[in-house]
Write a structure and sequence with these properties.
Elements: H1 32-44, E1 48-49, H2 56-63, E2 80-81, E3 97-98, E4 112-116, E5 136-140, H3 141-147, E6 162-165, E7 171-174, E8 185-188, H4 194-207, H5 240-252, H6 257-270, H7 275-278, H8 282-287, E9 300-307, E10 312-317, E11 324-331, E12 334-339, E13 343-346, E14 354-363, E15 375-378, E16 390-396, E17 403-409, E18 415-416, E19 420-424, E20 426-427, E21 433-434, E22 439-440, E23 444-445, E24 449-454, E25 470-472, E26 485-489, E27 492-497, H9 505-508, E28 512-515, E29 531-534, E30 561-563, E31 570-574, E32 582-587, E33 592-597, E34 605-607, E35 614-620, E36 623-629
Length: 630
C-alpha cells in the first residue's frame, strides 16, 4: 500500500516493535538463504490453519475491515471489508462488501470470494496452504473469476492486449514483465497495493519452503505459457525476472499501517507473521546476493553409517566452497532427496535390495558439483524397526472440535514429514463419498518421538494447543466417528482408521483409541483388535504427557519411594535409584516443567526450591508418583 517511500533497511538486525519480543530470535547476523530458512522455521512452528469454509468469512471481520479509506474509521466501521481489487484510494468506491456478502460473480459488485493471491491450483488446494490468511483475502467475485489462475504482473498497455479493466483501474492483460518469457495474461493491481501483493507472494515462498518443489510449476517445460512464478527451487523459489518485479513493487510501495495492523490481526488468529512486513529490509537481505560462476567442489567420503531393511543413513565430507547451499542425493542415478546438512536418512527402501548412491553439492547460483564417490549397499532382509510412521492415538471427543491424532516414529531414523499427509473421506450430497484435499505436514520427527495433530478449538483436559505440533481445522480434523481416516506418504496409504466407503461409527464414534504396545507397524487395513478402547474425551498420556487421572505408579518396581511428601526444598528417592536415567516434574496439566538426566549420579536429592507451591507428578523413567510442593 503506497503512502510514503521510506528507505529500505538492508540489515537483518532491525526488528519491528510490532513483533512479540523474541519472536525472531536467531536471525541476527544471517543473510541470504540462511536467513530465509531460519525465518521459515520461525513462522512455520505452531502456525494454526483454520477451515476455509467454516472460519475464514468470519475471521475477515478481524483482519480485513476497511478503516483506511472512504471516511471509514475503527469507530464508525465494524462491518465493511477492504477489497484491494476494487478499492479506489482517492475517491468513493463503486461498491463495498460486508463479510456476509459471500458469493456473486455475475458482475462487479455482486459479491465477494475468498481469493487465493497464490492460485490454489499451485498447491492442489491442499491444507494448510488452502486457508492461509496471509494470502487468502476477500475480493470481488467477478474479478476473482476473471483473474482465474493468472499471476500478478505488469500488463500490456496496448488496448488489443487488455482482457478487462475494472472500476479501480486494475486490469488483466498480456504480460509485459521485463525479461520474463511468459507472454500470457496477468492481473495488475493498482499502485496502492502492489507492495502488499509482493510481500504476500514473498511470504508464500518463505512459509512453504520445503514444499515448493512439489507444487505445480512448468517453467522448464514451456516458459511462454507458465502461469506459476516458481522455479522449482526451495531457497530462491521464484524465477529471477519475476522476483525482480516483486522486489521493485516492494520498494516502491512500502509497508503501510494497514499491512502492519493486518499482520498483527492474523498473528492473533494464526500465530505466525509475515516477516517482510515486520522487517522490510529482509527482502533485499535474502534475495540480493552476489553470485559467482564457479561450480562448487564435489563432496567426498560418502559412506553409509547405518543400513536397515527400509532405510539407510548416508554421510559425507562437505564441499570446501563457502557458498554451498546444500546437497542433492542420487539413488541409482535419480534425484531422491536434498539436504542442507552433511547426512541424511533415505527411507521407503525395499528389503534385500541393492542401491547405488552419489551426492552433489549446489551453491547460491544453483551450480552443481560433480558427483561424489559412489557407494553400493544392500538393505537387510528384516529388522526390528517400524517400516513407516503410524497413528498411535485417535481421539473423537464429545464436542465437534474435540479431535486429536497422535503419530509415532519408531523407524530408527529421523523422518522428513513434507511428503506425509492426512486424508479423510467425507459424505457429500446424495450420500456420495469423497476425499477433500488433504492436510500436508512439514518439518521433521525424530526417532522414538510422538507428535499430536489437534483441532484448534479442542478443549481436552490434559492437552493444550501449546503442546501440539500441528494445529488445524482442516477437514481431516473434523471427523465425526463414521469417517474413514488415513495417514499417507505421497499417494500411498500408510496407516488407516476405519474402512473406506462405509459408515464406521461402531468403531470410531465417541471413543479414544490407543494403539496397543504390542503393535509396532502401521497397516493400511484397520483392525480394532490393535487398539485399546477408552471412553470419550479420554486423553491420558497424549503426546507423552501425563494427565491428572493417570495411574500414579506404573513401574513393576514398587520399591522406589520419594520422601518427604509434602516437600519444601529437596526430596529423596529410596530404592535402586542409581539406575534412573531421567527425572521429570510434570504439572497437573501435563506440562513438563523440569527435566534432569542421570539425577542421582553424583547426589542423592532433587531440588524443588524454584517450583511454585502446588501438586505435581514426579516421573522417574517408567515410575510416576504424585507429590505436594509446600
Amino acid at each position: 500500500m503506497k503512502k510514503i517511500l521510506l528507505p529500505i533497511i538492508l540489515i537483518s538486525t532491525y526488528i519491528s516493535a510490532q513483533a512479540p519480543a523474541g519472536y525472531y530470535n536467531g536471525t541476527i547476523g544471517l543473510t541470504g538463504y540462511a536467513l530465509k530458512s531460519k525465518l521459515h522455521d520461525i513462522i512455520s512452528e505452531k502456525a494454526i490453519s483454520w477451515h476455509y469454509t467454516t472460519h475464514l468469512p468470519n475471521l475477515y471481520n478481524q483482519t480485513d475491515l476497511d478503516v483506511y479509506y472512504d471516511g471509514h474509521t475503527p469507530a464508525n466501521n465494524t462491518t465493511i471489508l477492504l477489497d484491494i481489487y476494487s478499492e479506489i484510494p482517492d475517491g468513493p468506491d463503486a461498491y463495498e462488501y460486508t463479510s456476509s456478502q459471500l458469493g456473486g460473480g455475475s458482475a462487479e459488485g455482486s459479491g465477494y470470494n475468498r481469493e487465493h493471491m497464490m492460485p490454489q491450483s499451485t498447491f492442489y488446494s491442499d491444507y494448510p496452504m488452502y486457508s492461509d490468511l496471509f494470502y487468502v483475502i476477500p475480493a470481488d467475485a467477478k474479478i476473482n473469476q476473471l483473474r482465474s489462475n493468472y499471476p500478478y504482473g505488469i500488463s500490456s498497455t496496448v488496448p488489443a492486449n487488455i482482457l478487462a479493466t475494472f472500476t479501480n483501474t486494475s486490469k488483466i492483460g498480456k504480460s509485459a514483465i521485463p525479461n520474463l518469457p511468459y507472454t500470457g495474461y496477468v492481473y495488475e493491481p493498482i499502485d496502492e497495493f502492489k507492495g502488499d501483493v509482493a510481500r504476500s507472494i514473498l511470504y508464500f515462498a518463505l512459509r512453504y519452503e520445503g514444499k515448493l518443489g512439489t507444487f505445480k510449476y512448468t517453467a522448464n517445460a514451456n516458459p511462454a505459457s507458465d502461469t506459476n512464478p516458481f522455479d522449482g527451487t526451495e531457497e530462491r523459489a521464484i524465477e529471477p525476472a519475476y522476483l525482480a518485479m516483486l522486489i521493485q513493487w516492494h520498494q516502491q510501495d512500502p509497508v503501510s499501517p494497514r499491512e502492519t495492523n493486518r499482520n498483527n490481526a492474523v498473528y492473533a488468529l494464526q500465530k505466525n507473521r509475515n516477516p517482510f512486513i515486520d522487517n522490510p529490509g529482509w527482502v533485499n537481505a535474502i534475495w540480493s546476493q552476489t553470485l559467482d560462476a564457479i561450480a562448487p567442489q564435489a563432496p567426498s567420503n560418502l559412506t553409509s553409517t547405518q543400513t536397515s531393511a527400509y532405510f539407510t543413513t548416508l554421510s559425507w565430507t562437505p564441499s570446501a566452497d563457502a557458498d554451498v547451499l546444500g546437497y542433492k542425493v542420487y539413488q541409482n542415478g535419480t534425484l531422491v532427496a536434498s539436504t542442507k546438512g552433511t547426512s541424511i536418512s533415505i527411507d521407503h527402501l525395499t528389503p534385500s535390495t541393492t542401491y547405488n548412491y552419489t551426492v552433489k553439492a549446489y551453491d547460491n547460483g544453483y551450480l552443481q558439483s560433480t558427483d561424489s564417490n559412489q557407494i553400493s549397499l544392500t538393505t537387510l532382509a528384516t529388522d526390528n524397526y517400524a517400516k513407516d510412521l503410524f497413528i498411535s492415538k485417535y481421539l473423537e471427543g464429545s464436542t465437534n472440535e474435540n479431535r486429536a491424532l497422535e503419530i509415532t516414529n519408531k523407524t530408527g531414523h529421523p523422518v522428513d514429514l513434507n511428503n506425509y499427509r492426512l486424508s479423510i473421506q467425507l459424505q457429500g450430497q446424495n450420500n456420495s463419498l469423497y476425499f477433500p484435499a488433504p492436510f500436508e505436514m512439514e518439518g521433521t520427527i525424530q526417532n522414538n518421538e510422538t507428535f499430536v495433530v489437534l483441532n484448534p478449538s479442542a478443549t481436552f483436559s490434559c492437552f493444550t494447543k501449546d503442546q501440539a505440533k500441528f494445529i488445524t481445522a482442516a477437514p481431516q480434523m473434523t471427523f465425526y466417528g463414521y469417517n474413514y481416516l488415513e495417514l499417507r506418504y505421497k499417494s500411498t496409504t500408510v496407516d488407516a482408521l476405519g474402512v473406506t466407503g462405509q459408515n464406521n461409527s461402531t468403531a470410531l464414534k465417541d471413543v479414544s483409541l490407543y494403539r496397543k504396545a504390542s503393535v509396532s507397524q502401521p497397516t493400511n487395513t484397520f483392525n480394532i483388535n490393535e487398539w485399546t478402547v477408552y471412553p470419550v474425551d479420554y486423553c491420558q498420556n497424549l503426546g507423552g504427557t501425563l494427565s491428572t487421572s493417570e495411574e500414579l505408579i506404573t513401574s513393576t518396581d514398587k520399591s522406589l519411594k520419594i520422601y518427604p511428601n509434602p516437600v519444601y526444598d529437596n526430596f529423596f528417592v529410596s530404592g535402586d535409584n542409581e539406575k534412573i536415567k531421567t527425572a521429570q516434574i510434570i504439572d497437573l496439566s501435563g506440562k513438563v516443567i523440569y527435566t534432569e538426566k542421570d539425577p542421582f549420579r553424583n547426589k542423592k536429592e532433587i531440588s524443588v526450591q524454584g517450583i511454585p507451591t502446588g501438586t505435581y507428578i514426579l516421573r522417574l523413567d517408567d515410575y510416576s508418583q504424585q507429590f505436594i510442593k509446600k
